[in-house]
Specification:
The protein is mainly beta. The protein has two helices and 27 strands. The N terminus is likely disordered.
Length: about 375
């Protein structure tokens, strides 16, 4: 099916046309004003990159929870929801201005691709061909390179409208962009449900064999305040094994049991309880029980007793990267001017395993022409009294 691409202005125009006439064809000024107000609340100017307009879109559910997303990097800039006392704040780290994202921050809220996580030495082979990527993380390749999907302007093919809290983004990554072969056609849809679930659906096709590993890099702090760390948050991950890494955070190839180690989160455990036993902190891929699936299943639960908030993660992916915000160093400032310090946010990135193109025993990440890449992830926030 051919994609129909509509700009937000075009969608607004159609909305105004639809609301401007009643059943008898007469003008309805009141309805037009209402439609205009609704649309203006859903999209706001957020600046410009390389001559392209950046817009911030707001998804709002019936409970009044809001997720804000910009078409630069497909970034989730905020997720405002109530705590157990009814106070509303954002449970993800982010900024209210474009410049802060251009500095750049450590992938706050961004879509990651073509390949989320690391590829050893910035090289991989497909058949007899060797491909060289940017070494943008020491000697290794990280999160798609110097200009990964987190730094491009996505086309908005379906903007949010009244009663439809979702947005669909599209990007065509051209052959050899950042060193990756093939024209990769990518579509990502964000939907905010009335159950306060942020659903992310990823789809892609290619005309040449290429590695694909898409994810979202939101940093969560369920207290809603970066003055607090995430060390008291309790985490549970449905994984009996993880992938140990070398000093460059590249998997060694071993799938190691978590039992009896600081990596065991099979039961709810405070993140800070054993973090001192993990050099550098947590930044590891968990081998999710059940592997790659065709249906969503719950793979992790995060909770905070201060706010009463709970985050549930569902996915089809075989892996989950748990990152405890080890490299946050106070350089970045929140919207209120508060320094964003170490361990004030954590990531739960659903994924295939790091360095999979160089690890034949890991789940395959090579997308072939004629195949369709499809995966879904759901983040659900609720309040547990």
């Amino acid at each position: 099916m051919k994609k129909i691409k509509l700009s937000f202005l075009a969608i607004t125009a159609l909305a105004l046309i639809g609301f401007s006439c009643g059943n008898n064809g007469s003008a309805s000024t009141t309805q037009t004003d209402s439609a205009t107000t609704n649309q203006s609340q859903m999209a706001n100017d957020f600046g410009e990159v390389d001559g392209k307009k950046i817009t911030q879109y707001t998804l709002t559910n019936k409970a009044g929870d809001e997720v804000k997303i910009i078409n630069y990097g497909g970034i989730v800039t905020s997720w405002i929801t109530a705590d157990k006392s009814g106070n509303r704040s954002s449970v993800v780290l982010g900024f209210d201005n474009l410049d802060s994202y251009l500095t750049p921050p450590p992938y706050f809220g961004a879509l990651i691709g073509r390949f989320g996580n690391r590829i050893a030495g910035g090289k991989f082979k497909i058949g007899d061909s060797t491909y060289t990527l940017a070494a943008n993380n020491g000697r290794n390749h990280l999160h798609g390179g110097n200009k990964g999907f987190d730094k491009v302007v996505w086309d908005v093919t379906a903007a949010p409208s009244a009663g439809n809290p979702s947005i669909t983004l599209h990007y065509l990554s051209k052959d050899m962009e950042e060193g990756y072969p093939g024209n990769l056609d990518v579509t990502v849809t964000y939907t905010l449900t009335d159950a306060n679930e942020l659903r992310i659906v990823y789809d892609a096709t290619t005309d040449k064999a290429t590695p694909v590993n898409l994810t979202n890099h939101s940093y969560f702090n369920l207290t809603g305040d970066v003055a607090n760390t995430i060390l008291a948050h309790k985490l549970q991950i449905a994984a009996d094994r993880y992938t140990p890494v070398d000093r460059g955070l590249i998997p060694t190839g071993e799938l190691k049991a978590v039992a009896g180690t600081p990596f065991d989160f099979n039961g709810p455990t405070a993140i800070g309880a054993r973090i001192a036993q993990v050099p550098g902190g947590y930044d590891h891929n968990y081998v999710l029980n059940g592997g790659k699936t065709t249906a969503l299943r719950t793979v992790a639960t995060l909770s905070d007793s201060v706010s009463g908030r709970q985050l549930e993660v569902q996915t089809m992916e075989p892996g989950l990267q748990f990152y405890s915000g080890n490299f946050l160093d106070g350089t970045l400032k929140s919207n209120s001017g508060q320094a964003i310090q170490k361990h004030t946010g954590l990531c739960l990135e659903t994924q295939h395993f790091p360095d999979s193109p160089n690890q034949p025993s890991f789940p395959n990440t090579i997308l072939q022409p004629g195949q369709k890449y499809h995966t879904e992830t759901v983040y659900k926030v609720s309040v547990v009294q």
